[in-house]
From TrEMBL:
GO terms for molecular function: acyl binding; acyl carrier activity. This is Acyl carrier protein. One of its GO terms (biological process) is lipid A biosynthetic process. NCBIfam families: PRK00982.1-4. InterPro entries: ACP, ACP-like_sf, PP-bd_ACP. Belongs to the acyl carrier protein (ACP) family. It is found in: Cytoplasm. GO terms for cellular component: cytosol; membrane. Keywords: Cytoplasm, Fatty acid biosynthesis, Fatty acid metabolism, Lipid biosynthesis, Lipid metabolism, Phosphopantetheine, Phosphoprotein. Signal peptide: none annotated.
Length: 80
């Protein structure tokens, strides 16, 4: 699994789940500042990602951007 594959999956989840314009979702996109997501929106995305990749995401990690979430998922999958 490549970083690009994980990014594209997460991007699809954000776009589908939260009706966000796909052009707005980049690796450096900030969940709150750029996408105006609240904690419930972010929780919905994290829940879908946890189910998809069969991992636990620690929300205390302070991930603020899509890229940070992608890196976290990759690390969780390689640590297993």
């Amino acid at each position: 699994m490549t970083k690009e594959e994980v990014f594209n999956k997460i991007k699809d989840i954000i776009v589908d789940q939260l009706d966000v314009d796909a052009d707005k979702v980049k690796e450096n996109t900030n969940f709150k500042n750029d996408l105006d997501l609240d904690s419930l929106d972010i929780f919905e995305v994290i829940d879908k990602i946890e189910d998809l990749y069969d991992i636990e995401i620690d929300t205390d990690e302070g991930m603020e951007t899509v890229g940070e979430l992608v890196d976290y998922v990759l690390k969780q999958k390689t640590d297993k």
